[in-house]
Every structure is written in C-alpha cells, then in structure tokens.
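Fold this complex.
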Amino acid sequence: MTQTLPTAPRRREPVHPTPEWAHPGKSLLLPAFWVVLMLIAGGAVRVALFVRDSFAAYPTATLLALVLFGLYAVPFCVFVAALDYLEREPPLLLATAFAWGGLVATSISIRGNAAVHNLVAKLASPGLAAEWGSALAGPTVEEIAKALGIVAIVLVARAQVNSVLDGVVYGSLVGLGFQVVEDVVYAVNAVAVAGRGDQVAPVIATFLLRGFLAGLWSHTLFGALAGAGIGYLAVRTDRSLLVRVTVAVLSVLGAMAIHFLWNSPLLSLGGGAGIFGDLFVKGIPPLLMILLLVRGVRHREADYYMGQLAALGDRRIATEDELRVLGHGHLRAGARRYAYGRGGVKARRAVRRLQRAQARLAVELSRGVVRSGPAPAPDPAAAPTASAVGVARVADGPTCAPILGGSHAVRWRDRVLVERGRMLALGHPEATAPLSHNGSIRRILGGIAVFLAAMIVVGLSLIALGAS
Amino acid sequence: MRVARGTLLRNLAGSIGVLCTVAGLAFGLPALDRALPAQRPAGDGPYPVGGGVTVTPPPGARLDVTLTRPGDTRGTAVFLTGTVRYVVVVTPFDGSLAEANARLRRKITGVRGHEITGKEFPVRTASGLNGLQGTYAAPGRAGRYLVFRAGGVAIEVTAAGSAPALSGALPAIEASTRTIAYRGGTA
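Structure:
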C-alpha cells in the first residue's frame, strides 16, 4: 500500500513549480485575459495604421526597417531562450509579452511621451523640454507602460511565473517588443526628417545607432530589471508583502534610473566621439550590473532544478558532472562541442537530446507531489505501479524510497534512459566536458575584443553615413 | 474548470488597476496637457531658434511652446501672429541652397493638398544671409516659404494661414524674416 504524504510547503524555495492541476484554459476565465486581449488588439490597430501610412510614403525604407529590426530581434530571442532553457515558458505567453511591449506599451508611450514633453515645455520652457524632455518622459511613461505588461502576464498566468528568472524572461521580451517597434518608428521618422524621399541611408544609420550603439543597454535590459522585481513580488511568497513590494518598486525605479541616465545630457561628452563616451560611462556599467543580477537568479533556478535530479541519486539519470554542466548554458554548449569532437554529429545530437530530456525531467519532478513507496527494480523498463506513479529515488534500502513527480516525470525519465542508451552505444556515455579555465578566459577576452571591434566599426560606419 | 471566487476578485482588481494606469498614461496625461495653454508671448528681442540661428518675432506674436524645440545643432520655433502660423526650422545640412530649397519644396508638396504656386525670387536678410522665397497654397490656406543656408545648417521658414490673414500679417512676418541671423552675424 502506498502512503501519500501531504505536499510539503516549499515556500522558501526560489522556484514555485507550476502545479500539476494548472490548466492554461483557466486563463480564459480571468478578467485580466480579456483586458490584455483588448489592449493588444487596440495597440495592433494603431501600429498597423502607422505601418500602412509609412508604406504609403516610404515603401522601401519601411520594408528595410521592418526586416532589419525584425532580424535584430533574433539574437535577443536566442539569448532569452538560452536563459529559459531549464523551465521553458509557454510560447503563447512569451508572444503575449512581446506583443505587449511592441503594440500596447509603444501606443501608450507615443501619447504619454508627447504629453510629458508638452507639460515640461509649458510648465518650464521649450529649452528644458528639448534638453531634458526625453530623460523625463522616457523613463516615467515607457517604464511604467512596460512594467504593466509584466504585471499583466502575472495576472493572466500566475502559475507560469515560477521564479525570479521567469520575471526576467517576460520583462526582457516586453522590452524587446518595445525596442523593435520603437526603432522602426524612429527609422521611418529619420527618413521623413531627412526629406530626401524614400531613401534607405537614414534607416541604416538608425539601425546602427539605435540597434548597436544604443541598443544593447536599452529596453530589453530595462525590462529585464523590472521583470526581476515583479517576478520576486510574485514568487517569493516566503517574504512579507512589504518586502516584496519594496523590491518590485525598487527594480522598476532602477530601470527608470538607468533609462533616465541614458536619455539625459548628464555625463555626456558631446561631439562625434561622445557616443563612445556615453557607451562606456552610461551603457556598459548598467549592462554588466543587470547581467550579473540575471546570472545570480539563473544560478538559483539552476541549482533548484539540479537538486531535483540529484535527489534521485541515479547516475543513469544524471552524473555529478552532468549536473554541473546542465545548469549553465556555456557548459551545456561545451559538452555538445566535446561530444562532437569525440563522436561527430550523432554524439552531439545525442547530448543535446539528453540535456533536453534531463531538463524536462527536472521540471516534472519539481511539479509532482512526493510520495513514499516501494523502490522499483533498477530495470529502466520496469513500469511504475498504478498506485505510485512517479520516479523513484534510488534508495539505500529496498523499501520506502520516495516517489517523485507524476506520470510526465516517468515519461521523461524513460526518455533520459533511452538517450543514455544511445550515448552508450556511441561510446560517449556522459554529457560533460573537461574543465578548462584557460578556454573560459580565452572566450571572455575574445568576446570583449570582438565587442569593442564591432562598436568601433559601427561608430565609423555612422560617421561615414553622416549620422547626427 | 472553475476559478475560486477570491482569485477572480483579486484578478478583477488587478485588471482594473492595469486598465486605469493605461488610461492614465494614454488619456490622462494628454488631457492634463490640453488643459494648460500652449501659447505664451514670444517677446521682443531675438529668439534663439537653435543651431546658432536667431530671429526677432513679429510684434505681438505668441510662441507655441509645445512645438518649439531649441537645440545645439537644430531647432524649431513656432510663432502665431493672429491666426497665421509662422515657423522657423533649423536642421544640419551640408548641401547647397538649391538642394535645401528642393528639400523644403518636397516637404510642402508632400502634405496632401499642398502645391507650390508662382515663381521663386532671391531674398537677403539684414545680417547678409542669402535665400530663396516662394509661395504655396492649400485648400482654404495660403503660404509663403523661405529657405537659407548658413554654416552647416539649412534654415526653413514657412508662414501659412487664410489668404486675408496672411496678407495682413505678411509685412510683420517679412520684417521678422529679415532679422534671421546665424551665430549673430553673416554666413
């Protein structure tokens, strides 16, 4: 007989797994779903009208702007997908976050920004509005409009926001959507201001300036910071409401402060080389700060999920080395490269599939209730008993080993074992890579060198295009 | 599939909060903006348009502060004399006067219903800036445009209103355009 234990309250954990009973269809019953749908539809109409008018006036330039900034979003999406590797967010929710940023937040901001600029001009002077208008309007209106998108995601699908990292993922996608649409608007406006007809040069200059020199520390980054705070508010229910609200407010204020600094004339050197000064003084420090924050929350989430696999104590599921590798994107990639070196494409593919199956198993283990029951035989083909569906921990004794997860966990456990079998057949039994500190240092230094070279090339290209 | 009443109420409250904040940003701020007057007296002395360009506004002209934006390298000043809108725009420009003129003409004719009328003729400001002047028209409106080149900028001037209003305001506007100066002197 199986004794079902009450689910232990895991309120202190950094991750609140999506409960098994959570059903996506339930969102349809929530008022927030219809509010978000209505606002996205309204924003879509507004942005579609802008694109239609832009196509009518400048067809080539508008098409180029859409293509360039559409492609520009791809590496950001890849980066976010790598962050989100272990517990993947539903694509529909990710698309909703992107749509909020691109359609709703931009539509709100166009009206709100203009009003704030005008208010500054009316209450102070046109000179102050020209110099400080963007620094005052951008952080206040735009950051609030984007933060609302993350709050909306929490309201629509609370069960899917499981960790602070999920807040970062949704926040960065809201920011990315905003950044892409705003950049398209800026590019088309640059064509109109140039007054030379349907020319592509202003679009390319905008792409280089806003996409590269000003793009890496722009809305995606601000959104990630705000998302971390709102994720904390939603997830860390072990803390008092006051602490959670304070953290959320501080994170949104932090995003506003970085945005303000970037838009303001403070610390600006001015002149042609001024953009490089801005880049190092106002761009890179916040970028590094937020990347460190994201790294911290990612490690916390990874540690939690690796703990789920480690609790099985089964080397066929994951070895100690694989647990070290699986939680970090660059180490996962290193393991795949190592497999490719040893066994070619097939080994690399097998490692990729094993890593994916291990990650899914870890998530499923976290979602299921913990039961006690007889430990099944070590035969991987052994079917779980009907009364204790789940994955058994490898126990020292033959009885009373906890059964973790549910039927999905069994499915992914079986998938892991199948992939392990494939790897054994290929003569590459473990998805790991040898430790190499030199390689890491080389990679970091190489990355910095490539980044600096790219920035210099972009800056020189802008000077050649005569951008101001 | 049911949702607990408490969850539903909390969700409703959150949704109303989101909706109210959206409305506040998208409609509340513009309403506040509309509630405050946009015009103020332009003053009598030279007004810094931006990019090193100054102009003395027509007597009694009012400045539209919501459209006026001075800057180091560019700027816009929008004055109102009666119902006539008198606009001076300074932008960085490295082409010739003819190219600056062609660009302004494209901007004017790019607006639906606007067309260039009559001939162009040269003009000269009191500070010695050479430029071109012409006329344009739109349904129910008449317009005058001028363009100058100075240093690394182009100075575009337009004045538009109903035909009687424009003809009444034109002497004062022409006197004002003659005061346009770049960095306080000649080109």
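Chain B touches chain A through 41 residues (CB under 8 Å).
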